[in-house]
Amino acid sequence: MTEIRRPDDMVRITTPELAQAFIDEQIALIKEQVGDKKVLLALSGGVDSSVVAALLIKAIGDQLVCVHVNHGLLRKGEPEQVIEVFQNQMKANLIYVDAVDRFLDLLEGVTDPEQKRHIIGEEFINVFADEARKLDGIEFLAQGTIWPDILESEAGIKAHHNAGGLPEDLDFELVEPVRILFKDEVRVVGDQLGLPGNMVYRQPFPGPGLGVRCPGAITRDRLEAVRESDAILREEFAKNGLEGKVWQYFTVVPDFKSTGIKDGKRTFEWPCIIRAINTTDVVEVTVEHLDPALMDHLAQRITTEVEGINRVLYDFTPKPPATVEYE
Ligand code: XMP
User: Could you give the 3-state DSSP secondary structure of residue 287?
Assistant: First the structure.
């Protein structure tokens, strides 16, 4: 299975009909590969793992065990949406792991960006492996590997996260039903599988999540300010027709405070930085110029609704010299 390659003459999946043909073909292949055995999947709620989950649910129903790890660095409403869509609507066999304290305790006081990323990545594997060991009779591991992952790993650009980096005692055979697809094709397939639009067309979100948007040592209160301001930004972009148009947008709450005034009293609180960018390849990035009325409205909402914020700043920096994320 892992050697399957995208045929050179494969027609790009751009229509519901092509997506349905792909879905039917994959369901047959998954049934043939898996038989009556159980499959485990780390379901983050991102596009790729969500499409893999939906395909596997159609193919093998409750032989699929999904594990959703909430590491405390997800956006507002994300864990709830995973539970609603997969457990309540699709009747998936879903294990929800609240690992918030486990992650935030480990990250306490850690300021180095690379160390933060390393801790988050490693702990994710630990939590997932713990859950896998509790289960009996799992023989397969499903992954949302897509074709660019294969190409990039072959080109030596990045290591392909094969088998999720699981410890050797967890020796599963891989099931990778979207491995020959490009990202845009995964979205068309997700649409056809009936997944919600905001799940299928969501903007990119880094693995370490909001952790890289809470620069320096993460504290629960500042992380909450990132989460709440991000939710307001997303809501306002959706209302103003920018969702799906601007490539990526988010907020960052840096670890310094400045003087302000609220209700006639001095405040000493964090700023909230808004970043909104466009790109095709993420190598070069331009800044989205927001309507001044929207900027005023965002500043007003974020300073009144988000605890601990007394200023809203806009990041006008392209990439290069700045990267998209702050860490
Ligand atoms: P940078 O900050 O490198 O970001 O200019 C480029 C794009 O990659 C995303 N990004 C990540 N995605 N894991 C991911 O899956 C990560 O660790 C990670 N770091 C950055 C970033 O959001 C942007 O879209």
Answer: strand
- Residue for token pair 């790109």: 279
State the Cα–Cα distance between residues 174 and 12, nearest whole angstrom: 24
Task: Name residue 296's amino acid.
Answer: D
Q: Residue 308 region, left (φ>0) first, then alpha (ψ -120 to 50), else beta? A: left
Q: Using the atom order of ligand 1, give the atom closest to the CA of residue 319.
A: 5
CA 77 to chain centre: 12
Please calculate the CA angle 26-201-14 and round it to the nearest 5 degrees. Answer: 50
Q: Ligand 1 center to residue 62 CA distance, Å? A: 33
Residue 94, beta-bridge partner list: 66
Counting atoms of ligand 1 from 1, which one is nearest the CA of 204?
Answer: 24
User: Going by CA atoms, what residue is nearest to atom 20 of ligand 1?
Assistant: 206
Would you state the pLDDT for residue 162?
A: 53
What residues are paired with 68 via a beta bridge?
A: 96
Distance 160 CA to ligand 1 centre (A): 15
Residue 246 has pLDDT above 60, yes or no: yes
Q: Could you tell me if the CB of 145 is within 6 A of ligand 1?
A: no
CA distance 223 to 216: 11
0.85 exceeded by pTM: yes
Name the token pair of 50. Answer: 């969500």
- The Cα-based distances of 202 to 157, 171, 237, 243 in angstroms read 24, 32, 13, 9
Pair of tokens at residue 297 = 């409205």
User: Is the shortest distance between the CB of 206 and ligand 1 below 6 Å?
Assistant: yes
197 confidence band (pLDDT: 50, 70, 90): very high
Ligand 1 pocket mutation, candidates 124, 315, 325, criterion most atoms within 8 A of CB: 325
Q: 140 forms bridges with which residues in the sheet? A: 39, 173
DSSP string for residues in 114-147: HHHHHHHHHHHHHHHHHHHHHSSSEEEEE----H
Whether residue 322 has its Cβ less than 6 Å from ligand 1: no
82 and 95 Cβ atoms separated by less than 8 Å? no
Q: Using a 6 Å cutoff on CB, does residue 248 contact ligand 1?
A: yes
